[in-house]
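Figure 3 (text version): structure tokens given as input.
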């Protein structure tokens, strides 16, 4: 009888932990990129970031043009107190490679976009297809 009660308690605990974990995952999921009327909305969560950029084919990979005074091209805005960053960009139809640059040093593909390709330097980049 004791073993039966223990099994039910363990099963209840495992079910509870699974439900809490899934709820946490659902709350953390972000949709990116989102296509809206000829524009694309990029989103990424980075709680420790001070600066986040979208670097891609359309903006010289975030390098800008120092001669014209452009710096931090593709700068994203933090939209909440939990590290959600967002930027909307108007782009013509085509295929674009991009990635996020965190704190001007760390490059990462878009974790919400399953489309991955190679960048100009043989590394990884996310792929965006604008219709």
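Below: residues designed for each position.
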């Amino acid at each position: 009888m004791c073993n039966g009660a223990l099994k039910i308690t363990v099963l209840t605990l495992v079910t509870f932990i699974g439900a809490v974990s899934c709820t946490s995952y659902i709350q953390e999921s972000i949709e990116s990129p989102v296509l809206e009327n000829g524009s694309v909305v990029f989103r990424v969560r980075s709680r420790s970031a001070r600066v986040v950029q979208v670097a891609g084919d359309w903006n010289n990979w975030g390098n800008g043009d120092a001669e014209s005074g452009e710096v931090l091209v593709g700068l994203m805005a933090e939209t909440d107190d939990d590290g959600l960053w967002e930027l909307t960009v108007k782009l013509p139809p085509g295929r674009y490679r991009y990635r996020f640059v965190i704190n001007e040093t760390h490059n990462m593909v878009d974790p919400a976009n399953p489309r991955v390709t190679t960048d100009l330097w043989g590394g990884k980049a996310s792929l965006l297809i604008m219709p």
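The longest strand covers residues 94-102.
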